[in-house]
């Protein structure tokens, strides 16, 4: 017998440490007839956003499901108007913050209690403007959520309930903006774009980059920096001197006017895309502050 609501069209955005044959993608294939897992590991923010928008228009999903670093990418499409349907966000950490701006749509945040980003997700729910359509499911699990979502078979039910909650909401469900149509209502924060760059270095998706990894990345993307320069930057970024650079430390450094910030934002680990990335990255306004 087919699973209930197995016809739901699911667009799944993996975290950086995941792959299309991992536990959650395999589970989704078993329970849903229509599944799209687009490639999202691009060097530039603009290329990633466009690839996801193109897949969204082509596949016409009923729901976005995203895990970890994929949450920020799903939220970007939602806040810029490309996707107006429901979202199921898994272990999204501070990438969940903009859900307070997404009124009139169903959003479910799955919060693993043993995840370092759990409080960010709880705060996102507390700040949400339309509590009737935004809810949370806190589970006893680690960041990967495979135990609760896959082994305990909870992911399928959350997808179905989120879609059905959205269908009863204030907006038309499953609405995708046509290509070329400008319907953005919230400008994607520059900080969110910078997080994408940082996430390319965060290979295990835990929001942390070791000092050695950070030094290696700086040396590769800013080859003209001396060893002393690199050491100075690493020391400045790692505010609490715990030997690791987290997302917030990285953002604080980038937007503090540090000596090498422009170099880092304008370049990427792929030399052939450095100029394109520099042109695509918008510059933060001095007087602009996130709420």
TrEMBL record:
SMART domains associated with the record: EFh
SUPFAM superfamilies: EF-hand (SSF47473)
This protein's record includes keyword Calcium: yes
Residues covered by the EF-hand domain: 189-224, 225-260
Keywords: Calcium
Superkingdom, natural source: Eukaryota
Ranges where the record places region Disordered: 268-291
InterPro entries: EF-hand-dom_pair, EF_Hand_1_Ca_BS, EF_hand_dom
Protein name, per record: EF-hand domain-containing protein
Organism: Durusdinium trenchii
């Amino acid at each position: 017998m087919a699973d209930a609501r197995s016809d739901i069209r699911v667009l799944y955005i993996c975290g950086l440490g995941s792959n299309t044959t991992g536990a959650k993608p395999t589970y989704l294939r078993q329970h849903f007839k229509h599944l799209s897992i687009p490639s999202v590991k691009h060097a530039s923010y603009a290329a990633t956003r466009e690839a996801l928008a193109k897949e969204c228009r082509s596949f016409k999903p009923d729901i976005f499901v995203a895990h970890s670093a994929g949450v920020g990418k799903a939220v970007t499409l939602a806040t810029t108007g490309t996707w107006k349907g429901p979202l199921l966000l898994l272990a999204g950490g501070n990438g969940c913050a903009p859900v307070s701006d997404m009124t009139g749509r169903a959003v479910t945040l799955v919060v693993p209690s043993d995840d370092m980003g759990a409080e960010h997700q709880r705060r996102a729910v507390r700040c949400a403007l339309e509590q009737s359509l935004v809810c949370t499911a806190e589970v006893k699990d680690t960041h990967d959520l495979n135990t609760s979502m896959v082994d305990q078979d909870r992911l399928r039910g959350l997808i179905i309930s989120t879609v059905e909650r959205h269908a009863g909401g204030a907006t038309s469900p499953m609405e995708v903006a046509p290509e070329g149509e400008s319907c953005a209502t919230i400008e994607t924060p520059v900080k969110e774009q910078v997080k994408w760059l940082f996430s390319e270095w965060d290979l295990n998706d835990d929001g942390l980059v070791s000092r050695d990894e950070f030094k290696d990345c700086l040396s590769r993307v800013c080859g003209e920096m001396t060893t002393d320069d690199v050491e100075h930057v690493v020391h400045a970024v790692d505010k609490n001197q715990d030997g690791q650079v987290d997302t917030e430390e990285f953002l604080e450094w980038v937007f503090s006017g540090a000596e090498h910030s422009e170099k880092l934002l304008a370049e990427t680990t792929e030399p052939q895309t450095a100029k394109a990335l520099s042109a695509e990255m918008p510059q933060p306004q001095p007087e602009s502050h996130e709420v």
